[in-house]
Amino acid sequence: MDYFPQFFNFSIPADKSHPLLPPEIEIRHTATKDYSLFVVSDIPTGTLLFCESPLVTINHDSTPLDVLIQKSLSVADPHTIRCFYNLHNAHHRWNDPSYILTHKPAIQAGIWLTNCVLLSPFTSAVFNAVSRINHSCIPNVELEWSEDRQLMGVFAKRDLAAGDEVFRSYFEEEVGHRLVQVRREYLRGGWAFECGCKRCVNEAAYWDWKNKPSVPGDNEDVEGRMGSAD
Ligand SMILES: C[S@@+](CC[C@H](N)C(=O)[O-])C[C@H]1O[C@@H](n2cnc3c(N)ncnc32)[C@H](O)[C@@H]1O
């Protein structure tokens, strides 16, 4: 089955409610990162926030990525296709439905690379609600894939307070131990965005301050901010 512009409604999820999320979790628009998930009540460490099955899954072999995506979408139902095209695309900006007819593979690959999660060394997937979770170098949730149930669980890694934004880490733990410059380069290269998490902003400010010739009385701001977290 192929898809046409009339399948798409460009109204990304309405603020607050999302069909896959429990009432304790809301989707909201943010000033700098487009959409994001927030908790509306206190949630203790280890709690399962929600779980979700994949929207689209790909088994990787030597076939080019765009061909694999096209193949998976060709058997997807219209609702899945609409959800897929509503996801964020950090690699390929577009907002004109007719654009899809000429730039389809690039748009699909852009959405895939912006949102995909590895389920195993040879399988990746894109999820509808999990895709709205932004990255932080101090994540407060973690993902756990259940192969038996074919479900992705989102678990609180720390105690969450009502109003907290939900963040996961887009990279392996060892990258999280590296300097801000390395972490940002990793996300720029692989994910096409400049990390604006509080840890990166604070650490980058520290390095800016450390690398510039010292001026008396110039450093209170940075030293004061270094202790805060997401
Ligand atoms: C998987 S999506 C996350 C949800 C996305 N904000 C949305 O509106 O659907 C990844 C995109 O979110 C944004 N993003 C996620 N974490 C970010 C961060 N720490 N700093 C800046 N932008 C971030 C980037 O545009 C990135 O390409």
From TrEMBL:
Occurrences of domain SET (ranges): 23-171
Highest taxon listed in the record's lineage: Eukaryota
Gene3D superfamilies cross-referenced by the UniProt entry: SET domain
PROSITE patterns, alphabetized: SET
CDD domains attached to this UniProt entry: SET_SMYD
Listed name of the protein: SET domain-containing protein
